[in-house]
Amino acid sequence: MRPTALVPVVLLTFAWPSLARAQSDTFFDHPDVWFYQGGQINIITQYHGDFTSPYSGEHSLRASSETRTSRVLTLYLGVRRADWEIALDVESAGGLGIGDAFGLAGFTNLDVVRNPTLGGAPYLARLMVRKIFALSDDRVDADISPLALTPRVPSRRLEVRAGKFGIVDFFDTNSVLSDSHRQFTNWTMDNNGGYDYAADTRGYTYGVIVELDTPRWSLRGAEALMPTVANGITLDTDVRRARGENIELELRFPTRSALRLLAYRNHANMGSYTEAIDAFLAGRDARPDIEAHRTPGTVKYGVGVNAEHPLSSDVRVAARAGWNEGAHESFAYTEVNNTAAVGFDVAGMRWRRPADRVGVAVSSNGLSDEHRDYLALGGLGFLLGDGRLQYGRETIVESYYTAALWRGVSASAGVQHIWNPGYNRDRGPVTVATARVHVDF
Hints:
two-stranded antiparallel sheet
């Protein structure tokens, strides 16, 4: 898709002004009943032109122009009785991302499954039970969603979830920087790039979440399964040696601002960058190979913070920062050891399209000394590996415009500009254009 192919999407934004005043966020209404059914379609097409690349490796972003389209189809089902719920989510993810999702730490499309050999057959994404224990008699309104079906909940409560889910369904959420279906699509805009959260290659895991909620704060913790290998589809069920531990404190303020403080600790069969480098320099390995230096039960830990604040009824700002120890391999999410992101969005009330939204954000991602030395000597991570490396921080600016068309149907146009793709100052910069269509049923 050449950039001119984005023009129809932009024209849709203004062609039917009345359509922006959609009467529902979904194609079908979801009344307050015991049974929930819904779904989503999300289609993203991205294009980049040729960019500077004096050399490339096995895991480099392709320097020649390319166009790729991904699609995610989701069916949501759920039932609730009193203070418990069961939620089921069946998904199909197909298509490809640019470069087959190699060569960028902040990859441009969160919908892309990083193992294209998995194909587009439907799979179980989520299956979880939620139990609510009331700690107060008064109840407050709650938004109904596919993962939270109860319309009124105790203002003070203990919630327990167990089953299959995505950790970032509940941790590190942010109303400005979390929704790849209507907002930003870059991995390090929608999630904390330094949060190597427990997940298989599709982004899901099995685990238990316990959450204590009050009107002004929430404290949540989770234990979840880690993959058997970096970016793997198989989860390790031996929790004595492999598990992800997560804890987050969320503070909510009368201004509708929020601050979230996150910490995590992963145990897995991870490798050491230093051991891989030493073995290569001593001539024992033909190139640095972290997979040859994995040890069961290795620990990797990190911290994160995210905040959001409304400046007015139509303008919101948000920021994230994260860090993890960089001695051991990036294992589940992406190859980032430290990151910072800041962004804002504006609702379209000022131009008489209140359901539309425009956003701009910037993220800057970095590596530890051990990680960058490993890549510079020719090592491969599960996403990166140009064969050598002239290190520089990978910096990304992304913007989008999402136009609400009618009852859960929206179209978006966006652009990402990336300096030092894969942390390599010898390659790039690269500009990626995005067109997206989304339907909520």
